[in-house]
What we know:
Blueprint: E1 3-6, H1 41-53, E2 60-62, H2 69-73, H3 78-90, H4 105-125, E3 130-133, H5 155-165, E4 172-176, H6 183-188, E5 195-202, E6 225-230, H7 236-254, E7 258-263, H8 280-297, E8 302-306, H9 315-327, H10 338-343, H11 348-367
Parallel strand pairs: 1-2, 1-3, 3-8, 4-5, 4-7, 5-6, 7-8
Amino acid sequence: xxxxxxxxxxxxxxxxxxxxxxxxxxxxxxxxxxxxxxxxxxxxxxxxxxxxxxxxxxxxxxxxxxxxxxxxxxxxxxxxxxxxxxxxxxxxxxxxxxxxxxxxxxxxxxxxxxxxxxxxxxxxxxxxxxxxxxxxxxxxxxxxxxxxxxxxxxxxxxxxxxxxxxxxxxxxxxxxxxxxxxxxxxxxxxxxxxxxxxxxxxxxxxxxxxxxxxxxxxxxxxxxxxxxxxxxxxxxxxxxxxxxxxxxxxxxxxxxxxxxxxxxxxxxxxxxxxxxxxxxxxxxxxxxxxxxxxxxxxxxxxxxxxxxxxxxxxxxxxxxxxxxxxxxxxxxxxxxxxxxxxxxxxxxxxxxxxxxxxxxxxxxxxxx
Length: 368
Ligand code: ZN
C-alpha cells in the first residue's frame, strides 16, 4: 500500500484577478503583478520539486472526479451553489469576502473538493495507507453560504460528510495547522459530536473575530471544538509543544476513525500572510506526530488536505518535508533555508510565554 497524492492541473487554473492586499483595486491602489496571494505558483512549485526529487515515483499520483452536487449539498445550501454556478458560468466575480473567482471557478472548486473527498474515501476503504490532496482553491474558511479567505467550498467538510454518509467512518478528527483559524470547518461541525475540530492558529490574524479558545462547541458538539490561538512569533519548539500537550491528548480521548489535517504552510517563517517562525522541519515533525497519532488510534488512516501557504519560494520545501514524513519514501530534499529559519527562532522569553499559555489552555480544556 502506498501514500496517495491527489492533484489536478485544472486546480492551478483557478484565478482571482487583480489584487493588492485589498479589493477592489483602482484609485490609488495599484494592482500587484502576481494578483491574489493565493496564486497557483506555490502549489505548482511543490509539484515541480516532487518531480525533480523523484518522490512522485514513490507516491500513488492521481486525480479524482469533482465532488458531486449531492456531496456539495450536504454542506452548502442550494441557493449558494446556484448563485456560485450562475456567476461562474457568466463571467466570474465575488460572492463573499475577498474570494474572487474567474469563469469556470465553480467546476474548479468542485474538483478541489473532489480531490479531498476521494483521498479520504480511498484511505478509509483501505486502498491507500494515507494520502495528501493538493486542493486548490483551499477550503477551511468557507462557511456553508459565505465564501471567504480565498475559500469557495469547504473541501474538508465535504469530504467528511461524504465519508460519514457512505458509512466509511463514524468519527473523524480535523487538525488544522494553517496559520489562520479554520472558521468554516468549525462552524459546520460546531454542534456535532462525531467530528472533532482542532485549530492551531496565529491569534487574531484571519478572521479577526473568531478562533478564541472559549469556543468549545455547542449542544451535542460541546467539547468537540478546540481552538489553540498562538501569539505572533511562535516557532518550532512551541508548535511541537502545542501538538504534544494539547492536540494529541484531545485526539486520544476522542478516538477517531481517521484524522484529517488542514495542512497550510503559512505558519512558515517567510509567509507574507502570517507572522510565525515554523520551518520545513516543523512541518516534518508535525506530520510525524499526526502519523504517530493515526497509527496509535485509527490504523494509520491520515489524510492531509492542502490549505494556505503563500511563500512561493519556501512552500515547496515545507510540502516536500511533509510528504517525506507522510510516506516514509527514501527521498530526501535538504532545506536550503534551514539555517536562516533556525536563526529566526524566538528566544527563551517567548518560548516561556507560549509554554505558560499552553499550560493555561491545558487546564481550560480539561475543565470544559
Ligand atoms: Zn491560511
